[in-house]
Amino acid sequence: xxxxxxxxxxxxxxxxxxxxxxxxxxxxxxxxxxxxxxxxxxxxxxxxxxxxxxxxxxxxxxxxxxxxxxxxxxxxxxxxxxxxxxxxxxxxxxxxxxxxxxxxxxxxxxxxxxxxxxxxxxxx
Amino acid sequence: xxxxxxxxxxxxxxxxxxxxxxxxxxxxxxxxxxxxxxxxxxxxxxxxxxxxxxxxxxxxxxxxxxxxxxxxxxxxxxxxxxxxxxxxxxxxxxxxxxxxxxxxxxxxxxxxxxxxxxxxxxxx
Lengths: 124, 124
What we know:
2 copies of one chain form a homodimer. Chain A has a single domain, classed as Roll (Nuclear Transport Factor 2, Chain: A). In chain A, about 25% of the residues lie in helices and about 45% in strands. Chain A starts with a helix and ends in a 5-residue tail after the last strand. The relative contact order of chain A is 0.21. The longest helix of chain A is centred in the first third of the chain and has 19 residues, at about 5-25. By secondary structure, the first copy, chain A, is an alpha+beta fold. In chain A, strands 2-1-6-5-4-3 form a 6-stranded mixed sheet, with helices on one face. The interface between A and B is medium-sized, with 33 and 33 residues.
């Protein structure tokens, strides 16, 4: 297990949302051909499919405000990260979101193996 | 990767919250000595430490209402699960929560390797 899991996870979260909010096409380098994303229940696999989804999201301005970041080590040296925060898009009111990542290392770089995103919207 | 990841994750979630809400001491069998839980930012390790925390939570009645469950396979045959839902305790108003699990199989039983829980409470 990676003893640096907490700082790796928190640095990643900081980098990820800054890049997402500034120019989300820059996130392409964080995904690999076998990366998986589940975005609002839709399953995507590969950096190409994930980026196609992210860049097509229909807003111009976006800001992620992180509320909490919790990290745990995985058995294979990776890092499990759960984020709770608020998403502000264009001039809409903020929405809560929850996002979970599994980060792995290919020997020289960290990449996203798993990514699950949900707006926190309850029907009751 | 386990091709049954989606049904395994969803059956687990159904079982877990039913057991939690009926008699949470029954959850002990789902954790192992090396299981990790991060509960509202507090890190716990071992079934014993986790159960001590869960049974000491200061409410009599509890109900988890699940809004969404998203599952992905892990590289070692396990299942990554992200849950968004609402927690109703005693006569308090419901609170949103987010919980992420990593489930592993010891050859005959599924157990929780990772568990991260947060109430969804934003300061802004």
